[in-house]
Each structure stands twice: as structure tokens, then as C-alpha cells.
Amino acid sequence: MNFTRWSARLPPIPGTQRRAAARSDLATAADRRGDGSVPAARVEQLADGRAPVPAVDALPAREVLDRVPALVALVHGGDHRLAYLNDAYTAAFGARPLGEPARDALPELRELGLLPLLDQVLRSGRPRTLKSRKTPDGRSYTFTCTPVTEPERGEPAAGQGRAGVLVFVTDVTDHAEAADRLRASERRQRETAVTLQRSLLPQVLEQPDDLRIAATYQPGGTEAAVGGDWYDVITLGGGRTALVIGDVMGRGVRAAAVMGQLRTAVRAYARMDLPPHEILQLLDGLAAEIDANQIATCVYAVHDPNEGRLVYSSAGHLPILVRDETGTVVRADEPTGPPLGTGGWMHASGSVPLTPGSTAVLYTDGLVERRDQDLDEGIAALERALAGATGTPQVVCDRLVRSAGVQADHDDDVAVLVLQHPARTGPEGELFRNAALELLGGVEAAPRARAFASGVLTSWRFPPELHDAGVLAASELVANSLQHGTPPMRLRLRRTDRRLIVEVTDGDDHLPRRRRAEPADESGRGIAIVATIAAHWGARRTPDGGKAVWCEFTLPAGRP
């Protein structure tokens, strides 16, 4: 086959006709050098008088294609019969019979699915490229298919001829392997960050007596997109529970490490049983010390079953959503301070009702923030989803994630914490009881407290040993309050399905501490006795300027 006939009908390169005209009048162009014009660059007369260099357009196409390092094949007709292979193609895939259809002569194209691509190029008359396809031998190639036209025999070059496709194949194995190594490295980094992130989150959520809680965490699906989202549930004692959710800005291992430090600090500060805004104040200073360039948002909330509300403080975080037993959703978005690590701000606490039958949701921005919509729209959509979400906390959690359209390839971390304060009735309701006695002080306060505690514990049908321990704890806590506190005083007894809680409040904010009493001392043994007979004890300051001292007893397993 005379291959030069194919080159006559290759698509002209822009500017080719103009340069050809310039070559036809080379002498005239040479005379114009003095006026600043640029002479034609296709044919150049050498200074030593040797023959001019041939123009690119004058080179035979076959001679060029035979020498290029890329793989080149030429097919023509509807069945893509093989017309030409250059030496590089033959060296890569072996010699092939000319004139045979591509499906037989070029099995590598068939295996890579290129035959439909050849059909598309013939129909459309436009080039097509298939990037980085791996052949069975493990090499990777990029295939570019360009339409060409072969004149019929005896027909001028400018006439209409047979259509064909020039297949230009570039070996990109090195690039593909480098890209694979890069992706593997990024995948390992992401796996490391996800592993670190998950290891720093609670492995098992604490389950308070009065709440049902579930949480979920889903890392971002993009490479190394894992961030610093976290949540936690902390049992404070005395029936109270702290709930935390936060988000460290940034991505990767660094964000996860900062998150771990903040979460550990929150748990430590929570043991001090401070109000939510004081916890965030401490975290704000710590966040600046950990990394001055790293900021984080956080909500710290405390639930007290005796008060029926959620007391919270927010550092730039999204509002808590609460749905009551009628299905009405309330957005707790005030007060809100700046993110942690900014400094110079006094945080404040707010509250939202959390009565029996209510459900509250704490979440990070990955659940509601989208690039194509306003953040308020995402929160409003979450409110609508929460209004119709029923079932256990885990069911509600999963429904909210699905309603937000969070998939495995989501571009941001998502953390959700759902808590329910169930409305207990019937036999279950009998396991959760409260009793309180107001004490005005005086010598009659201690006997009244002992009599009250004995009557309540008897009505709750506690065994004698637990009854006596509860009466003794109530007596010692009241005596301590009478000696070191100020009125008004209150004795509160609370039972759950797992424990008995005895708590005494008064108007003095000095917290008691356990100390060693000498044999000759007439006081100082009350708290030591309580700490000895109870499973746990503690004290905290109350918002009204007083204090609360409490202790807990674990109920025997299997007891109604």
C-alpha cells in the first residue's frame, strides 16, 4: 500500500496554507527582512551553502510515523481493517497481519474496549481519547483516535476517499504507577487519620439511667478528608449527665490529634462539675495553648432529671434541636459565643426544656452544610426530618443521616448525637421515683430528715441493709449542711432502675472535702462515713449561689 496517499488527506494544521504560500515566494520573503517582517520558517538556507532543510509538510508521513517512539496503527473501513503499524507498535505487541479486521488483527484494542471508540470516531469525524488503560501485560497506555481519509486509487488527493482512523498510543506506565503510588499513600494517610479519629471517640457510650443515647460518626469520603468531629457522654453523678459535641477545623491527622486533646480535657473538666459556660471558658484557653492557629466549635450541655431541662453553652457551634412529645421542634441557638481558641470572650449558659418524651439532637456541620445552599436551609431541613423521626435513638440517628443525603463519598465528616428522655409509665415508671423535704434548719432538722428518709425508703421496699445505709447517708449529709451551710436546705431522694441517690442542697457555696479526723476531733467524720458506705459521692456549686452534696448507692441486680 502506498502510505503517502493517506498523508495527503490528513487534517491540515492551522496556518499550514499560510506557511506554504510563504515558501512559494521565499525570495520575496528574504528581500523583506529589512522591514522587520518574519520570514517563513519552514525552509531555511544554511549559511555554509549546504542544501536547505526540508519543510515539515514535505516530509513523507510514513517516514515520520515509523520513527516516532509512540505506537501508531492505521485502520480503514467500517470493520477497521489494519492498514499500517509502525515499528514501536510492532515491538510492543508483535507483528500483525495487514488487511485483517481490527477485532482479529488487534486483539489488544478489542480487550480494552476500543472498537466502539473507533466506530464513534468514524461516525462523528472527531478525535477521541481514552486515558491510561492497562493491558494484560501490565503496561498502561493512552489511546488517541483521529479520523483520516485515504483517496481512492487514481483519485486526486483533494477528492473524497475512504475513511479511516489513526490510532496513536502513548505509553504512560511510569505516570500511572506514580499516580497509583500517590493514591496509595493518600489512602494510607486517610486510613491512619480515620483510625486515630475513631480510636479517640468513645468506643462505648455511657448510658445514664434517665436517658437513652445513640451516636454515629462518618468520616468524609474524599482522600484524607477525615476531620476533627467528636462527641462524648459523661456521667457526672447525682443523676446528672454531660453531653458534648465539637468540630476541630481542618483535615487529617493534625485535626484528629487536636480533637483528642480537647475531648480528654473536656472529660477532666467535667469531673469538676462546673456550669457549662465555665467548662467552655477553660477549653477556650486550652485550645489556644494547643495550637494558636487551630480553632474548634463545641457545645457542652448538662441534663438534670430533677429540673427537666438541658443547660448548655455553645462556642460557635450549631444549635441544639429538641423535639417535645407533641412533635414540635425547638432550636436552642442562644446564647452562642465564638469558637474555642479565639480568646477574649466570656461564654454564657442557656437552657432548653427536655421533658419526658423529648428528643434532642446535637450534630456537626457536615450533616447540614452544603455548598449549593444556605446553612439555615440545611438546619431547617434537619428540623423537618426530626419532627417526623420516631423510634429508638439509633433509629432516629440513622434517619437523620439518611434524610441529609449523607453517603460514603460525602465530602465532610458527620457526627450526630441523639438523646431521648423517655416518658415512663406503668411498672417502669415505678422504678423512677423522687421525694424531697424542705429543711429550715434548727435542732429538729436532723431527726426530721432521718424520719423522712426512713419512711420513703420503706415505701420503696428497699432491703434492710440498703434502707439503713440510705438513712445514715441522709443523716450525715444533713448534719454536715446544718454545721457548715446556711438555709434554705433541701433533702432529695431519688431512685432509678439502677441506683439510689441522696442529695442535700443549701445556700453556702463552700464545697466539703473528705479529711482525716483525729480521735479527739468532734467533727469531720460525716463525709468520710458517706464516702465509705456509698458507691460514689460528690459536691458541686448550684446556679443560685449554694451547693449540692450527693452520694449514690447501687441497687442489687435483678431487683424490681
Please, what is the average pLDDT? Answer: 83
Shape: elongated
What is the share of helical residues?
Answer: 25-40%
How far is it from the N-terminal to the C-terminal residue, by CA?
Answer: 98 Å
In angstroms, what is the radius of gyration? Answer: 40 Å
Number of H- or I-type helical stretches: 17
Q: How many beta-strand runs?
A: 21
By secondary-structure content and strand pairing, the structural class works out as: alpha+beta
Largest sheet: 6 strands, mixed
Proportion of β residues?
A: 25-35%
Stretches with pLDDT under 50, minimum 5 residues: 1-44
Detailed description of the structure:
This protein has 560 residues and is an alpha+beta fold. 33% of the residues lie in helices and 26% in strands. The chain has 17 helices and 21 strands. It has helices at 4-7, 16-24, 26-31, 61-67, 87-93, 102-105, 107-111, 115-124, 173-200, 252-270, 276-290, 375-387, 393-403, 426-430, 445-459, 464-484, 526-533; strands at residues 71-76, 81-85, 128-134, 140-150, 162-171, 212-218, 228-237, 240-248, 296-304, 309-315, 320-323, 329-332, 336-337, 350-353, 358-363, 414-421, 433-439, 489-495, 499-506, 536-541, 547-554. Strand 7 and strand 8 (240-248) form a beta hairpin. The chain is elongated. The model is unreliable at 1-44 (pLDDT under 50).
